[in-house]
Each structure stands twice: as C-alpha cells, then as structure tokens.
Here is the input.
Amino acid sequence: MRVKVKELFSQLKSGLLDQNPTFVQLLGLCPTLATTTSVPNAIGMGLAATFVLTCSNGLISLLRKFIPKEVRIAGYIVIISGFVSMVQMIIKAYFPELDKSLGVFIPLIVVNCIILARAEAYASKNPVLPSLIDGVGMGLGFTVALVIIASVREVLGAGTFGGIKITPAGYEPIQMLIMPYGAFITLGFLIAAVNFIRKNSENIKKSKADSEKEASNENSVLKQESEEMEINDTDSSGIVIVNPNKDSNASDSEESVSDKKDADKSETVSEIKDDGDDKEGETDV
Amino acid sequence: MSDLFILMLNCVLVENFIFHKFLGCCPFMGVSNKPDNAIGMGLAVTFVMTLSSAVTYVVYHYILVRFNLEYLQTIAFILVIAALVQFIEMFLRKFVPALYNALGIFLPLITTNCAVLGSALLEVEKGYNFIYSVVFGLSAALGFTLAIVIFAGVRQRLELADCPKAFKGMPIALVTAGLIAMAFSGFTGMSLS
Here is the structure.
C-alpha cells in the first residue's frame, strides 16, 4: 500500500513538473494564450479544466472496457463535452463575471488537447484511481502554468496582480504584454526559460554523478570536501544563475562552440533570468 | 452586400482567428513545419469550417431552439462536427480521391481544432443569420489559412537561423508568431464594423 501511495504521489508530481502539459508537452495552447491576461481568469480557466480533466479521466477509465475501440474518440468527446456543459452552467450561475471574461473558451475546453490526450494516452489504459490522480496532477500543472504566465503578463503589463495594484507609482506598464501578441512572446520566453533550467539541472546531475565517481576513488577526507562542493553546486542551481565554471564543467563536449556565441547566450539568458526566477519561486510553493 | 464584404475583411485581417482570438493554435503550431502542409491544413479547415457553419446553424435554430435544448449546444455542436468530418472523409475518399490524397491526413485532426467549434459557438453568440454564419465561417477559415501559410514560410527560414540554444524549436516559433501577430494588429486601426 505504501509503495502505491508513493507511486501515486510521483504521478502527481510528474503532471505538475516533469510532464507539465503547457511548458513541456506544449498542449492546449489556445486557452493558455487567450485566458492569461489576468490572474483570476487564469485560475478560473485552470480549475475548470482540472475539474473536467479529473472527471473525464475517471469516467473514461471506468468505461475503458466497454467502449469499442473504433468509436472511442467520439465516445471520449461525448463524455468530455458532458462535463464541460456542467462546468459551463456552474460558472454561468455562480461566477457570471468569470463567464463573461472567459467567454467562448469555457465550452472550448471540449477540444482542449490536454484532456483528449490524457484520455487516450492514460485513462483508457489504467485503473480508476491512478487516472483520477493523473487528471488532478495534469490539471494542476496546467493551472500553475497558466497562473505563472498570467502573473508575468499582468504584473509587467498592467502593474496589477489579481486586480490589485502592486507596482510603485513610477512604473510604466508594458502594455504590449496584455495585448494578444504579448501572449505569444511571453509564452515563448517562459518556455525558453524552462528549457534552460531543465538543461542546466540535467547538466548539474551529470557533473554531480561524475564528481561522485571521482570522489569514491579518492580518500575519505577528499570525499567529504567534494561533497561539500556538491552541496554548493546544488545551492547555486536553485537560483538559476549562469555560472561560468559550471558551464565549462558541464559542456565538455560542446567546447567547439565559439566563445562569442557563449557570450551571446549568457546575455539572452540574463534577460529571461527574471522570468525564470519568478517561475521557480511559484513552482516551489 | 457591402456588409458581408466588411465582415469578411474584418474576420480575415482585423480579428484574425489565430492572432486576435487565439482559436486553432494547436494546428497552427503543429502543422506549420512546411508550407505545403500548411496549405493542405488551411484548405481542409476552410472546407470543414464553411460546411460546419451551415450545418450547426441549421441544427441550432431548427432543432435545439425549437425544443428548448440550447444548453446542449456544446455537445450537439461537437458531435455534429465530428460526424461531419467523418462524413467528408468518406465522401472524399469515394468520389474525389485526388482531393482526399491532398487533405486526407489533416481531416481527423480537424475534429479537435478549436477554431471549428469556436466559430460555430461565436456565430450563435453573435446572432448571425444563415448567410452571415456561412460567410463568417468561410472568412475565419481564410484568415486561419493566411496566418498558417505566412507562419510556415517564416518558420522554414527560422530553422536555419542561429538562435540561443534554449530558444531552439518551439520558443522561437512562439516569439515569431508574436511578432507576426503584432504586425497583424496594425489592421486594428482600420475601423470597419
């Protein structure tokens, strides 16, 4: 039982981080781009999608042995659109403002690729409980991603967070970011930041493994030292800062890349660094 | 007549489905690797969207409204669209094999294209009559085609461009799409409707 709980937990985590539907799998772009003009919109959209995803995953997994293979997609769509209609009515009844600002994107949850993808790839092959957990994990991953994008856009673009003004009086909002085209650009930069962080953490893991190997060959005093160094390394990895030492460690194979190019890279990186920091803080929460 | 023309221009340029309304972004990002694919996808969407506009209008006004079933519109529309796509696929395979070979692989993808369902829902929301609905569907799809073809052309050049490693692939494509959207937003200045 204990092992099972652990498994379920890791599944939840994979939805939130490793397999994040927005930043890693790039699914469901339309609602991601359209509803992230403000944080409340993003939360509403994310939770609505989470509800639909969880329920449809559960039901599809329950019915997985009864739905004939040939018409399964149509069957999934009917199940999903049933839940979407429910959500639509609930939002219309209790959150009329949210309904107005999300508009056509609530019924469009039906054709959100994340939901159909999870139904096809996961719920149709797995028992009910893991499917439900998968739905919750993926849904929350989607919500978190939406909130991150929305907070970048809203704070920088309008100077507010959830409708409350938070920037100092002298701050001139970058209005471009809340315009439609700002959505594409913000998402592009955020995905680049996520790519960068992932690559960095992979490199760190690799170099860590290498240094552990080396350390095991030497005597215990040195081993302790290297362990301390490793701890330092991981500390610096928490805050993603381009550390020239670390880079040269990690990219032995990439030394052919000219120095100039590297410099270029670190410049652009420092540009997205702010966004990256934002993101990290929120995923930790 | 001039009303229809303005509606059309408005849908294609000013309120472009992808750059202004964010409908149909998944195929926009997914199938825009090559201009040929983009044209195929665009044509398939145009075909399906025009037909689905007509069919969903009939279904909504003569079935759902008559029996007070408006709350079923999401389910009804998605089913109608799925069935329609299936039907078009079978029809083309049987009678127009040349067209089927060109568009066939894109058709199944269209069921889950939010632009098709989105246009059906928007037509109901705006209360268009039959002709307006069909023109709206057609011109929205033309706007989609225009956007995806332009984007595919840019993206082909992008593959050879030298950009930072973290930006390779999707991120730089998104930023590019943002820049094209910015160019399109210049049309907002034209006050048409």
